[in-house]
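Appendix B. Chain record.
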Amino acid sequence: MRRFLEAVFLIFAVLTAVPFVSLAGVAANEPMKMAEGAGGAMERPAASVPFYQEHTFLVLAGFATAVVGFVAFRMAQRRRGRKVEPAALVNEAVFVVDLVNSTHVSTHYGNGLAMRARTALKDRTMEIAETWGLTFSENTGDGYFMTFASVGDAVQTAIELLKRLRDQPPDLSPGPPLAVRVGISYGEILLDSRGGRHGAAINKAFRIEGLTSKNFTRVEGESELDKLPDCNRIFIDEDASHELRSSGIPMRAVGFCRLKGFSGLHQVFEVLWHNDAQPPKSQTDLHVISKSIIGVEGGPNKSAVLDSD
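Structure tokens predicted for this chain:
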């Protein structure tokens, strides 16, 4: 690859220099032609050659172009070969929030209203997250991907966001009220040297955020799946639920589901953030039925590639 790029550069330099050399030759021969055409008559002096046609100027211009091209080539080569090295491994809570029915809003109410909805979600989410120890944020188009030092901070951010959207909804008339979904996971995150985040826990949070009832599977010893809220909900994974139990924040076990890119079944919990939600009568509802999923697509979780909506 390197030799190919060098050959391309060399060809570029030659093609750049050829016109300048040709023009230089023409400029050098022009006074001689004018003298011959005059038939030796010296009473009419030859016209002066413009500076940009002089041989020295054209040679210098060609040389400068070649130097600039070479420097640009070397800079591009170094930047392309620079690798992002891993910097550290940390355990963080992954927070994903996404607008519901954003495509419907764009097609029925126009891109202007859809942009207002995205801006309102961005402003409110960032304002709240920064008060709860936000460690990283990245715009996903229709929402945000963030990380926090603890699951409690991530969940408190989600609860406060949903309450503000309910109590103080942004004005999106004539469109529908702003509705979102939140997915939270907890696990090991790889930090690169630029501060970027990588890891299966990130993919898992995206999967959990977009779950529907068809993703869930009933297992032995589990009651029937309750009706799932389509929007304004907070789903968390099993690891996040373990971290959250000591906080006193109410939650309920939703069920077991399959996540694309991950093997086996994964238990999902819902954070009961509003007064209408009924907390479980006992901790039995939060019990992980581990025996019922032994042997189901066993094996370690694998990182997934996110699908575009």
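Further analysis of this model is presented in Appendix C.
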